[in-house]
Fold:
Amino acid sequence: MQNHRWLRLAPDAPRRISFGADYNPEQWPREVWDEDVRLMQQAGVDVVSVGIFSWAALQPAADTWEFGWLDEVIDVLHAGGIGVDLATATASPPPWLTAAHPEVLPIAADGHVLWPGGRQHWRATSPIFRRYALDLVERLAQRYGDHPAIVAWHVNNELGCHNAWDYSDDAARAFRAWLITRYGTIQRVNEAWATTFWSQRYGTFDEILPPRTSAAIPNPTQQLDFLRFSSDALKEHLIAEREVLNRLTPDIPVTTNFMLMDGKHHADYADWAQEIDFVSNDHYRMPGERSFDELTFSAALTSGVARGRPWFLMEHSTSAVNWQPVNRPKRPGELVRDSMAHVARGADAVCFFQWRQSKGGAEKYHSAMVPHVGPDSAVYRDVVRLGGLLRDLDEVAGTDRESAPVAVVFDWDSWWGSELGSHPTDRLRYRQLALDWWVALADAGIRADIVPADADFTEYRMLIAPTLYVVSEALRERLDAFVHAGGHLVSTFFSGIVDEDDAVWLGGYPGALRETLGIRVAEFRPLFDGEEVMVDGGVGSMWSEPVDIVADDVEVILSYTDGDLEGRPAVTRRVRGRGSAAYVSSRLSRDALSSLVADLAHRAGIVSELPTTLRGKVDVAARSAGARSYLFVTNRTDESLVLDGIDGDVVLGTRHLEPRGVAVLRR
Ligand code: GAL
Structure:
């Protein structure tokens, strides 16, 4: 557990919203560095992440070290008043290393090698990789630990995003050790994995393998444990680097950039967050109708894993990315809006990938702060404008999330578990379902947070826990206690189905939550692609269920109105003392879900803090410290809006919100 430090700033430096980028000067001739610093100063940049992919430049051969260029880069930045978030440079092992030790390369489930040529081609469980990586980290810490430019250490890069799942023999060994720690005995593994099924009973731990490609469906609990293990294996690497850094440079805080969007591993960042001084996150806006709402969702989730404290936006894009099928530039206003939407949910630093757009390599068509065309460009002018706007928000720096009345629960076990194969449907995407509720809350004008499943629920009046598939006895008790204490729980289909061993809670669905909800479901009735069910005032897709009411105090809020389920309850609500427990049995359309969420919130005594004319049209988030409170209001529409009926002094922007505009009010 770390001690929640922020950037190491000079003793007299005031806390501010930091601004900067990944900076890759090794891609450029020396004379460009001076222009870079001049432009950074012009834009108000005060921090850059250096060295993320520099291993080969720092250690061109096993016994050759070249730190001279980095010494000079750090000095040049320091002279320019720019802080350095120094990477440990371990994210892309150089060719000499993988040529000498091909056994550090990850192995896919079907046994094929993932070769070098990209990045992150290393096994988290390889002792050889670990030795080389920690040697590099140690040398960097020794060399730069006393340099006043260093404001933080940046471990590796986006652990869990581009790292492949690794099924190698190293992984097998580490997986067995992980299972011994989790279960103690092989008997306990056999019970947890239900190995009486299909003759899978293990005699010893040595017989266990990662879930490599098999002839038929691999054991689901083995898969779930492998996902948990893979997250832990990467976390172990993070801890190993951090321990070297903490030992040699105890005064420099350590972070690593998470990828809370949707990394390959779905790494359990809520858990990892305990291991670093402050949370950092990277975010790239996805195309589509819910693009901006997905950004605010990711930002709120980051705030949730940071337990409401400020965090560092390590990367986002100034304009187009290069890894979607079709990559469009951002629209006017979006560069500033997107940045501010992260600040609204706790970002105390706004950084981009990257400072100067690369001339060569795989990301040359990815936007940057200084684009190919140069500083005489709309993008760079927006960058300079943003730098100025962030200065207007200095008083917000250091403030925490101001808890909303509602929280959406986001749980990694349920994410992993609900998307395993051989389920009633393979169409379920946990994160999308949570996003559905987030959008519905925004449409209803209700401010909300996102919290991990181990958060203190008592801070909230209403908890929405979409598809909380894995519910342990302990979580079941906490949710039930929340309702008994007067909280309002909203649960949805495919929740409470299994315990932490992926074993079904018997007696009817939704198993662990059945009593709290006062309902019982005998069979799931998932829907085919394009198939819909009618529900009072709306449409459901993907899932439906025959819900039986088994307690006297359950009210039907919405019913199915066609098909086999006509007349059956679709949404129920049980009142328990001052609290309640509602259940939603289908994936409701956007309109239906936003009306429902407004209705459920209203019944829970929660009303939007926005005037009716603005509900759904703006995104709202709040930060506070003591008596100071700031409300961030962002235009979600393409029309101009007037912020009447919201109290507060304008700190940023005006009460006339242009399309994609932002205003910050001090309350
Ligand atoms: C991130 C990565 C950066 C850059 C960026 C481009 O995943 O950390 O190095 O590749 O994506 O969008």
About this structure: Residues 409 and 465 are 5 Å apart (CA to CA). Residues 157-158, 161, 282, 284, 315, 321, 353, 363, 366 surround beta-D-galactopyranose (CB under 6 Å). The first strand starts at residue 18 and ends at 23. The mean pLDDT is 97.
